[in-house]
Amino acid sequence: MIRLILLVLFFLISLLAVFEAPAYYLWLLAVIVTEFPLIFITVVAFLLVTGIWLHKYQMASNIFGILALILFCSPIVRSYLVASTLKQNFAAAFGAGSANIGSNNLQKPLNFSNFFKKIPAIHYKTITYNTDKNAPLSLDFYPSVVGGKRPCVVVVHGGSWSSGDSKQLPELNSYLASAGYNVAAINYRMSPQYKTPAPVEDIKEVFAYLKNHTNELRIDTSNFVLLGRSAGAQIALLSAYTHPEPGLKGVVDFYGPADMVWGYSVPSNPLIMDSRLVMRNYIGGTYDKMPQKYADSSPIEFVNKQTVPTLIIHGDNDVLVSPIHSLKLNEKLKQNNIKHYLLRLPWATHGFDYNINGPSGQLSTYVVERFISTVTR
Fold first, then answer.
1. Does the predicted TM-score (pTM) go above 0.85?
2. pLDDT one-digit tens code per residue, 303-348
3. What's the rounded mean pLDDT across residues 52-60?
4. DSSP state of 187
5. Closest to 191 measured CA to CA, from 239, 146, 231, 228
6. CB-count burial class (<10 Å; 0-12, 13-18, 19+) for 52
7. Cβ-count burial of 164 within 10 angstroms (0-12 exposed, 13-18 middle, 19+ buried)?
8. How many CA atoms lie within 13 A of 279 on its CB side?
């Protein structure tokens, strides 16, 4: 009976591999289910094998266990399907040969052995980049392991514009530094104390600081890339599209809200997050009272023929920031003939890159490195 109960429970959990999470803590569990699937596969397989000698409830237990096993395996299977065409699709977007440049030309988009691989941490130093003594802001600088002046990736953290910091998801920073790029993971002014466009203004200060210390930090100031996650992606996109910094070659958008007007009109599930409250705290009021400020905060409104190349990465099961944001941005970039690529991950939810070695983490890391290599070469 205990085996049956456990396998039914795991079957219910496995549904998060294919369906959207209906509540906040189930969303957190969905990240674990889809990005650490081998844990669940191992446990369910163990329960199935060790229960062969049991006769009571064996049929029902086996049915639930086999179904759970299939669903837990689905993110891995589907990631291999995406990987099978990723090189060709990226090359179609950015030109022949673009998918084969990077720190390791032979690296595959997905490698099973990488599920168990640890990314070596690169030592970083924390630097105060602004001169406002009332609100000092810092960045964590990860130096490239390759000598000489190298391109620099400016990373903007997520957290609903009100939380998070530069220490968020540091594995990608170390990976990119090991691949030959400087990385500046920044902190910025957050809501509700500060409103938009304060974070975009902070990014301008980041660029000014990095350019003023180019020799000390060994930065090639003709090759910058902005990278943001979630709320940080909105900040990165808005900065790249409204204040195109000289030397900025591209922007990477991890599951960011690109259309704040549309996002306010279609809020997220309140059991997940009160998205309208989050937006009001960041923008300063409701859409009814300040529609122009919502439009001014929407990166999609500023796409034009001169927009920098853009990489968009989004999971189809994202319950915090709808993937429709990325579909709308993708279409606007297409209309303006901007070089761009949208990597859709059908099984993935918000924050899928928490595990850089998971199915989504491997694919996103692969395409991020190829994008940065392509636009900075």
1. yes
2. 999 999 999 999 999 999 999 999 999 999 999 999 999 999 999 9
3. 75
4. -
5. 231
6. exposed
7. buried
8. 30
What residue segments make up the domains of the chain, in order of their start?
2-80, 85-376
Task: Return the structure tokens found at 45.
Answer: 């397989």
Q: What distance in Å separates the CA atoms of residue 43 and residue 293, rounded to the nearest whole number?
A: 50
Q: Quickly count: other Cβ atoms within 10 Å of residue 262's Cβ.
A: 16
Contact 171, 119 (CB under 8 A): yes
> How far apart, in whole angstroms, are the C-alpha atoms of residue 30 and residue 24?
10
Exposure string of 220-231, with b = 16+ CB inside 10 Å and e = fewer, is: bbebbbbbbbbb
Structure token pair of residue 88: 């060709």
Distances in whole angstroms, Cα of residue 320 to Cα of each of 60, 210, 296, 314, 315? 35, 33, 21, 11, 11
Local structure of 223: helix, strand or coil: strand
| pLDDT tens, residue by residue, 136-155 | 999 999 999 999 999 999 99
What pLDDT is attached to residue 95? 85
The closest alpha carbon to 143, from 183, 171, 175, 170, belongs to: 183
CB atoms within 10 A of CB 80: 14
CA–CA separation, 328 and 263 (whole Å): 11
> What CATH number does domain 85-376 carry, 3.40.50.300, 2.70.50.50, 3.40.190.10, 3.40.50.1820?
3.40.50.1820
Alpha helices for 95-197 (secondary structure H): 171-178
Q: In this structure, are strands 150-156 and 219-229 parallel, antiparallel, or unpaired? A: parallel
Residue reference for tokens 């009976």:
1
Under 8 Å between Cβ of 253 and 236 = yes
Amino acid identity of 357? N
pLDDT in tens, 276-304: 999 999 999 999 999 999 999 999 999 99
Query: pLDDT at residue 106 above 50?
Result: no
> Which residue type does 131 have?
T
User: Which of 349, 347, 377, 343 lies closest to 363, judged by CA?
Assistant: 343
Average model confidence (pLDDT) across the chain: 94
Tokens at 13, concatenated? 């959990």
**Tokens 């309140």 found at:** 270
Amino acid 54: pLDDT: 65
Q: What is the CA radius of gyration of the chain?
A: 22
- C-alpha 146/C-alpha 332 separation (Å) is 37
Residues 239-246 have a mean pLDDT of: 96
